[in-house]
Amino acid sequence: MMGMALALSRRSLGRTWPNPAVGCVLVKDGAIVGRGRTRDGGRPHAEADALSQAGAAARGATAYVTLEPCAHFGKSPPCADALIAAGIAKVVSALEDPYPEVNGQGHARLRAAGIAVEVGEGAKEAAEINAGFLLRVREGRPLFHLKMATTLDGRIATPSGESKWITGAAARADGQRLRATHDAILVGANTVAADDPELTCRLPGLAAYSPVRIVLDSKAQMSPGSKLAASAGQTPVWLICTRQAPIAAREGLRARGVEVIEVDADGRGRVDVPAAARALGDRRLTRVLIEGGGEVAAAFLKAGLVDRVTSYRAGILLGADSRSAVGPLALDKLGFAPRFTLVASRTVGSDTLETWHRAA
Fold it and tell me: How far apart are CA 286 and CA 142, in angstroms?
């Protein structure tokens, strides 16, 4: 039953921020009487969703929840109170919620009402599903997930910039699916200037789940006529620049509906990446997909901020004169290299998909 709750929570990824993606299953006399997940936009919570489905059948049931029920008033009443009022007999939680306004208080409230509480079943998978939410609570930043579509030798384009298409249709479709599971997509100014991308989800049925589009652009040089700026009114666009970016450029983009976020510059006059990460955490993002280009990937890797890597590799070789997926890292010792652990590998069409987690 916890496995089902985890599957429900996974379905909500990319749709619930700033809330975590939670799943809940209610079981009574061996039968499922209610199931729910955190709905789009974060409301209702998974427990309320499941209780609404169960109705009176919830009395005496066991609730399997992937995260501790909340114990505070936000835009809705506490889920712990809703479980108590419904007459739930037992709650099995995968994880305690570290959010300061919960942090064990939900479980304590349930126990005080005479409800049996167990914590820990499915904890590892629940922590992975909500790794971004947990990072934001604990470190003040979202999870950053680097996506790469490369040749066998790690190249993303020919010397002239030709890149369509290195990977096949199946891999590109899977990349669209990956976009829909994140709160935001992040690219650099060079990618916007070269490709004029839309960065939306183009798979049938997923257009409404296109994430926030973020551009790392130190000087706010993105054209007000770009596809991103032109569509900012439909799908949010955030541009992160330095405080030294020209005021006229910033205001021109704001006039197009782009949200301009100003942060400190690093020693080279570019956006300070840790400062950008904190700014995104302040806006309560939990999962950000980094899609390009090589300089942006290198900047986040050098800052130690890449938590996950998804690599789509095609059986093509382009050579050292072609463009690399990752820009210079200025490493003089192998021991300083960012390291990742392979957690999954499979074939997607004619390409290989690998998923890597940052090594502990």
Answer: 4
**How confident is the chain (360 residues) per 10-residue block, as mean pLDDT?**
97 93 97 96 94 97 97 81 97 95 94 97 96 96 97 92 90 93 96 92 82 97 96 96 97 97 95 98 97 92 97 95 92 93 96 95
Query: Which residues are tagged catalytic?
Result: 47
* Residue 259 token pair: 């949200």
User: Which three-class secondary structure string do you get for the chain?
Assistant: CHHHHHHHHHHCCCCCCCCCCCEEEEEECCEEEEEEECCHHHCCCHHHHHHHHHHHHHCCCEEEECCCCCCCCCCCCCHHHHHHHCCCCEEEECCCCCCCCCCCHHHHHHHHCCCEEEECCCHHHHHHHCHHHHHHHHHCCCEEEEEEEECCCCEEECCCCCCCCCCCHHHHHHHHHHHHCCCEEEEEHHHHHHHCCCCCCCCCCCHHHCCEEEEECCCCCCCCCCHHHHCCCCCCEEEEEECCCCHHHHHHHHHCCCEEEEECECCCCCECHHHHHHHHHHCCCCEEEEEECHHHHHHHHHCCCCCEEEEEECCCCCCCCCEECCCCCCCCCHHHCCCEEEEEEEEECCEEEEEEEECC
What residues pair up with 287 in beta bridges, in sequence order? 143
Q: CA of 269: how far to CAs of 191, 265, 266, in Å?
A: 19, 5, 5
- Dig out the tokens for 334 from the structure: 């192998």
What is the torsion angle, in degrees rounded to the nearest 10, for the CA atoms of residue 272, residue 277, residue 279 and residue 285?
Answer: 160
Tell me the pTM. Answer: 0.93
